Structure formats: structure tokens, C-alpha cells
Input
Amino acid sequence: MNKKDAFSMVEILMVLSFIGIIIVLETIILQNRINQYSAPYFNAYNSLTKAAYNVLADMYCPDSGPNAICPDGPRAFPTTPENLCSRLTEFINTAGAANIHCSAQNINNNASNFSEDSVKFVASNSFKYYISSLKKVEVEDETINYFIVYIDLNGNSKPNRVGMKYETNGGKITPIDKIYPDIVPFAVTTRGEVIPMGYPVYSNMYLTARVKYPASVIEGEINDDRYSPMMTFNDAARKSWGNGEYSDIPFSINFTKLLPTTSEARKFYNIPADNSVSIAQNEGCSAGNYTCRVIVDVSDQKRY
Output
């Protein structure tokens, strides 16, 4: 009889142990990467949203005088990047006037001048804020004025990029170089709305969202706590309102597509459509109707 070589039980167990260690390490690395981008992103989004809300609230504040809630009385929403910068710093902690440079140059249309000369202000958490000039878009015969506010999530650290190399498969993004953007854009309208732009709109590494469905009657009781599973911001918007854009529903407007075609932050708009994502009509969502809403999840929610 010929003797056949084979792995011993000890060797098989050693191989399986090594595979298990690799899986654990990959899981830890992935979770760290998720925390690296999601927590700062939500911090930036929430800070900017609250600041824009407070700036908007000043438009309707009648009080004036040294002891009033808004001592300067009603103030219109800013229409220049310098004024927007000044107003945002009233509600975002900058840890001193030395960190505020509202007269710095505006970010250009391609968002390629992320230099110290274009930093409008630095927050106390080291986030750097860049602001574009005022822009306009026509939606349903209504003009919407907006700024693009770029936020550098890791301050002086690299890679200082707003785009990334990726490939697509069936409408899904797969990063190639695993270096994710650390500078993220938001559209801030003169109506006080803050809408995510760029790669985070299509990726759950930064941002997840759910669709809040309209209330329904279940077993004779009104249920107003109906949500979709977590998904990307882009998918949640499409499930709520389809592919339409509506002037009174700012989250339905894809501001990313309004960037120049040469902009790194715009390239994600050209991703092939995922045909499996469509408006959730069976849940009560209707194009152009605000019955369904997109809810941005908090940063400690589980990613998938």
C-alpha cells in the first residue's frame, strides 16, 4: 500500500486558528474605520444643522436690547460667505477669535483650494470650515439660494481629499484604495436647511438614514412609529420621494449633481442607478408629497 501525505489534526487546527485571528483583526480594523468617519461626520452635521437653525431663528426674533434673547433683533439669513461665516461662529465654538478668518478666500467651484488661505474658521474640535460663494438652483420654478460648506473632519491631518477612487458593481460603491474623504460638503440654503453632499450621501460609512412612514391604523390603534431599516441617505430619499426633486422638500434635491463635472465631490452622482431602490408606495410614500420623511440616524447606530 502506498502511504499518502495529509495534514495532521494539529496542523488543521493551527490553520483554522490563524484564519480566526485574521477575521477578528479585520473586524476590529473595519469597526475602527467606521468610527473614524461616522462619529466626526455626525458631529459636523449636527453642529452645522443646529447653527443654521439658530441663524434662521434670528430672522423671526423680535427682541432687541442688551438683555434680550437676540439683542440685535431680527436679522436676515446671510447672503455672503463672509456673513455666513460670522453668523455660524456665533453658534459653533471656535475657542477664540484667532481661529476665525471670515475674510479668507472662498472655496472654488472644483473645491481644489483647500489651503490655509481658504479656511474660514477652525472649531474647537479642530474641524476646519470652508465656504463657497452663494449659489442658485431652479427647482419647480422656484429659486433656491445656497452655500456649500466643506468641513475637514481631521483638521491638519491628511489626506485632505473630498473624493476617492472607487469602482461600482450593480450600483454599489466599492472603494479601491480604502482612503476615504476627510473633507465633506454640505449644502446650506438661505432657508436654513442643511443637506449632505458628496460621497457620504451614497455611503453608510459616514451616514445612515431611515424613512419615517406616515401613521397607520393597526388593530384599531394609530401607529406613528413606523420606520424603514437603515440605509444610505440617497436610498432613503429615493424611497421617500422617488427620483423627483421638489422645492419644498430640500432632502429630495441632489445638490451633489450641481457641482462641476470636474469636481471630485461630484463624481459619485454618476454612479449607475440601483434599480432595486424605488419609492415605497406600499408604505404610503408619494412623489412630491411630504408624507414620508428622511431621518438621519445618530452616530452610535449599528452600520451594515
